[in-house]
Amino acid sequence: MEFFNKVGKMAIGSRLRMLTETMVEDAVRIYKLYDIDFQPKWFPVFYVLQDGGEFTITSIAREIGHSHPSVSKIIAEMVKNGFVIEKKDKADGRRNMVSLSAKGIEVGKKIQDQYADVTNAVEELLAQANHDLWKAIEEWEYLLEQKSLLRRVQAHQKIRESNKVHIVPYEPKYARAFKALNEEWISKYFVMEDADYKALDNADSYIINNGHILVALYNNEPVGVCALLKMDDPDYDYELAKMAVSPKAQGKNIGFLLGQAIIEKAKALGSHKLYLESNTILKPAISLYHKLGFVKVAGRPSPYERANIQMELELK
Amino acid sequence: MEFFNKVGKMAIGSRLRMLTETMVEDAVRIYKLYDIDFQPKWFPVFYVLQDGGEFTITSIAREIGHSHPSVSKIIAEMVKNGFVIEKKDKADGRRNMVSLSAKGIEVGKKIQDQYADVTNAVEELLAQANHDLWKAIEEWEYLLEQKSLLRRVQAHQKIRESNKVHIVPYEPKYARAFKALNEEWISKYFVMEDADYKALDNADSYIINNGHILVALYNNEPVGVCALLKMDDPDYDYELAKMAVSPKAQGKNIGFLLGQAIIEKAKALGSHKLYLESNTILKPAISLYHKLGFVKVAGRPSPYERANIQMELELK
DNA sequence: ACTAATTATGTAACTGATTACACAAATGTA
DNA sequence: TACATTTGTGTAATCAGTTACATAATTAGT
C-alpha cells in the first residue's frame, strides 16, 4: 500500500478498512475449505449461542457489540438454514429466545478444527510481525473510548487556532470594536445599562485612570477584548471587566488567552487581588473564570443590575 | 471489547471492522468541524487530484487501491458538488479526464489545516500506545500479500490432518485396499497392464522377496499405499512402486508421509539407491518425488508401457 | 485490413454493517 | 389504576464499498 505512506496518517481509517476487507474476503473461502455451509458474519452470534443457553436478540447484540437489527437479521438467516431455533418467552411476550438447533450443535463440532487452524494461522502471523496488531487494536479501542478521535482533533485545532491569535494593548482604533463586542453579548442576554454606555463610550478613560485594555486579534481583526479597572477599595486593587469574545471566533481559546494576558498585566501593575462580577446565566464565562483561578466570594454592591455573582483571584 | 478477548484471534476480522467503524464515524463530524462540505470517502481521490494534473478514473483507482466503479461514483458526486471537472480525452475517446475545479482547489487550501490537525491527533494516539498500529497494519499488509490468510490456514489444516495419519506395515487384511487404490489411478489415466494384475493380486510375494509395503491409515481406514521392490540390478537395490493415495484423502500430506516412511524403511533394509518409474502426465506425483529428493535419470527398459520417466534417490 | 483481445468506463445488484422508525409488551409512577 | 417510560424486536432506508455485466474505443495479431 504505497499510497498510504504518501498520504499519511489521515487515511488510517481507509487503510484499516482495506486490511479488514482482504481478511474478510478470505474468510468465506476458509469456511469452504472445511465444507461448512456457514457465513463468517454468523460467527460471533454462533459463538455466544455455543454456550448452550437461550438468549434474547438484544443480549446477544450487547455481548458481541453489534446493533440489535444486525443480530436480528443474522438470526433470521441462521433460522432459515436450520442452525438455530426461536421460541417466544412465555413470561415476557417481547422476548424472542434463540438457541442452537441439533444441526447447529453438529456444525459447532465441525467448526472446532477450523477454529484451531485459523487461530494458529493468526498467531503465526502475529509472531512473524514486529508490531503486535492484536494488542495495538486493543489499545486503540481503549484510547478512543477515553477520548474520541473527534475530540482529539478538536484539541489540536484549538491549539493551532490559538497560535493565530495575538493579544495586543488597546489603541484608539479599537474603540469601535471594544464597544461593539461588548454590546453584542450584553444586549443578547440582558439590556444595556447606563453604566455600560458610560464605560464603553469612554475606553480612553480606563487607561487614564491607571487601568488597561487588551485586544485579541485574529487575522488582524479584533475579535475579543478585556479591561482592567483600577478600584478604590480596601480589599481589591483591580477589577477584571468588559470581557467579550465574538461568537464568530469561538473555539480558539481566545477567552483564556485574554484572561491570562490580563492577569499578567495586573501583576505587572502590582496588583495583589483581582475582582470581577458576572451572571450565572453566562455558563461558559463562569467556567472560564474558574479555569483562570477565580473563586466565588460573598456579594458586594454593584453598579450593574445583572451582576449576581462575584469572584476574586489572589495573585502571587 | 471484552468479547474479543474471549473469542480469540479468529474474530480479528470483526474486531478490525469495528475499530474502523468507530474511526470513520468520527470522520464525518471532523469535516463539519472545519466547515467544509466534504465527504471523508472523497479524500483519497481528492488527494491524488491535488497533484494538479488530469487523471483517468482507472489510474486513480489503481493509485488508491479501490475498484474503478467506486472511483467512478465518487467522481460523479464530486462533479455534482463542483469540486472536479470531467473532460473527454481527444486522443482516446474512452478516457474521462478528471481534474480539480477552481472550487476544488479552494477547498484544498482549507483542508490543509484539517489535515495537519488530524495527522497530529493520530500521531498523538500512536505515541500514547505501546504497540504501533500504523506499522502493524503495514506489516500485515505485507505478510498477507506474501501468503494469504487462506493459504496460511490451509497449511495449518494440512499439518493437523497429517497428524491423524498413521503409516503402518502391510498386513493381509489390506490386500483389497492395496489393489483398489492402485487400480483407481491406473485405470483413470492409463489401462491396467498384465504386470499390474500380477503385482496387485500377489502383494504377499513382495514381502517374501525381501520387499516391503506400507499402508497409510486415516481414521483407521487405509487411504494410501506404497511398495518397495527388491531389484536385481547392478545400479539399484530397491524400487519404489505402487504408490497410491485415495483422491478422497487429498491435502493431508499422505503421499509425502508415505514416501518418507518408505525411504526410512529402505535405509533400514540397507539400500543405497532407490529407483522409480512414472509418467510425466502425473504432475502431482512427479513433484512429490522431487520433494522427496528423487532426480531424473536416463531411460532404462521397463515392463510398463506407461513409464516415460525414471528417477533415482541416493541414500546416505 | 479485419477480427480478436484489451482497456476505460458506467450501471446494477449485492454485502454487511449502520441509523431511524414503528409497535407491542412490560415496568414505573402519580 | 391509568398513563408515561422503558425495553425488545422487526422493517426500511442508507452507506461505502464490492463484483458482475454491458458497451464503446483502442490496440494487437494475422
UniProtKB/TrEMBL annotation, chains A, B:
Positions of the HTH marR-type domain: 9-155
Keywords: DNA-binding, Transcription, Transcription regulation
Molecular-function annotations in GO: acyltransferase activity, transferring groups other than amino-acyl groups; DNA binding; DNA-binding transcription factor activity
Pfam families: Acetyltransf_1, MarR_2
Keyword DNA-binding applies: yes
PROSITE patterns (UniProt xref): GNAT (PS51186), HTH_MARR_1 (PS01117), HTH_MARR_2 (PS50995)
Organism for this UniProt entry: Mucilaginibacter gossypii
Ranges of residues in domain N-acetyltransferase: 165-316
Annotated protein name in UniProt: DNA-binding transcriptional regulator, MarR family
Chain segments annotated as transmembrane: none
